[in-house]
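Internal ticket - ligand job 299, geranylgeranyl diphosphate:
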Amino acid sequence: MTNSIDLDTHWEQWRQRIDRHLENLIPKTHTSPALLHEAMHYASIGAGKRYRGALVYAAGHALAAREQDLDKPACAVELIHAFSLVHDDLPAMDDDDLRRGKPSCHKAFDEATAILAGDALQTLAFEVLSDPKWDQQPPTLRLEMVRTLASAAGSLGLAGGQVMDLNLDSSSATLETLAAMHQRKTGTLIEAAVHLGGLCATDDPEILARLENYAGPLGLAFQVIDDVLDGTADTGTLGKPAGADQERGQPTFLSVLGEQAARRYARDLKDQAISALDGTELDATLLVALAHFTVERSH
Ligand code: GRG
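stdout (structure tokens):
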């Protein structure tokens, strides 16, 4: 077992770094159009676990990357994540009123503003990575980061996974169909986060492949526990409506496997993730601690 206090301390610092940088990256709330910028701040700053951002920092840390080189990739990943949550909550998608313990973006503002805030959060992620003033990293590396994030968000990633989710036939859903859908909808961004952290320190294909083998099962484990928590935790703890999946009649890892087997499945995936790092020169302490967090978390 790893030292969870060590992870907590790092994680709190990463959270603060991400919030501080996002405050500067998103135009100020008084900048015109003020409503749009307010919605962008509202949807992306001050809440959320920053799990994906933490993975960027932890992967970079494993390879001795400098923390300041990881800030922009961590923010870019969290911007895409925030965008996906705003759009996921819209009436045309999951139609959820609560997110991160407060009214979802389209409830706090209006639907059109939420759509546009999501769009602008997405494009900002790519602006951040391609900023010519970020000259500590070479253009080829930044281009690879842009490509990684774009493909994670696109039709073979989040957007494609969301379409698969919307079209899922609840009567015939199996573990395999659920895993394939969630690998795209949730997994690809988690994989991209780890890859971006790795890219900040190395271009060694063998090390990047190890990180990929860690991130794949981890992303799925994260979603398995997300499903378990949706059905077993309360709204106050989750900051989003508990039991929403069941209310929508949506098949989940919990409905297909039951709680015990779903938790066992998540633990197996976590073990797979950790074993991908065995025998490497990496300082994997924080990545391993994050894997344990993934399956032990309560929110
Ligand atoms: C093309 C990026 C893009 C989006 C459009 C709406 C959509 C397509 C995709 C939905 C993707 C989505 C919302 C997946 C759910 C992933 C998930 C488990 C979210 C919860 O993540 P947490 O628990 O949330 O890390 P916090 O609030 O802690 O950040």
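Auto-summary: The CA atoms of residues 230 and 245 lie 7 Å apart. The pocket of geranylgeranyl diphosphate is lined by residues 48-49, 51, 80-81, 83-85, 87-88, 93, 100, 153, 158-159, 162, 185-186, 223, 226 (CB under 6 Å).
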